[in-house]
Amino acid sequence: MIGKACCNTCASLKRAQKVTKTGENRYYYGCRVHGLIRKAIVSDSGLEHLSCDEWVAADEQKIENRAIAETLGKELQSLHDIWNQVYACGGADFNCPDGVELNLLRSRMMSQRRRIRSCLLEADYPASYKLEIPDMITSQYMARREEIEAAAKKALQIYRENKDYQWLVEKNLELCEEERNVSGIYYALGYIEQLERAIEQDDYVLMRSHEVPEHYIEILRICRDKVACIMKEGKLVSIQSDKEKERHTGGQPQIPGQMDIFSFLAS
Description:
Blueprint: E1 13-20, E2 27-31, E3 35-36, H1 59-64, H2 69-89, H3 98-119, H4 145-161, H5 163-172, H6 177-183, H7 185-200, H8 204-208, H9 214-248, H10 261-266
Antiparallel strand pairs: 1-2, 2-3
Helix pairs in contact: 2-3, 4-7, 5-9, 7-9
């Protein structure tokens, strides 16, 4: 058990140093890290609600915490293992480069090391504590760049040769704005357009999202079904409208310039 991380249990608290706030019934205790605790309190119970990142357990608590030394060590080792995996093979985040993820992992390593120092006696530090913390790297770092780019170019070729994609490109010109919005054709074709730009602009994060093109091929197929359904419904409405007009005109051809019943009602 680590114990509650608060000023009341912190080894840096200096109870012998007490400073009363002028004109108020509040006071500070001394702190070996900050000089004084960060907020004045009205009673010692207030120490239970104060803490900081520099909290350190008392030696008695550290001895009790030996039982969790192995767990803390495994957590730190896991962070190192994940960092090495991402650095070599890349992560799975399609929203940010590997460099961002690696630096976040590095920050978590440093926090875990600080946690080990604050909770354990030095003699009980786990073996993973001795591992070197990796340096900060550029946030734009990406693993497997050549592999990602090659896969993206192959995916783009697959999309362009896909029958559903070719059909959607052709039918897109026949749809009105509302039909495009309802069918989602903007998104389906937009994914391929985005990939084209990503290859041109060396956007490896977006290119990586197309390493498995089957997902986007399925989107194209579903979109084609929607567009086909919309176009079929449009033709049925048009046929019904023509029949309705024919019924009102008695099947007689209109004289050029003569208004039909629908035009008359709308005028």
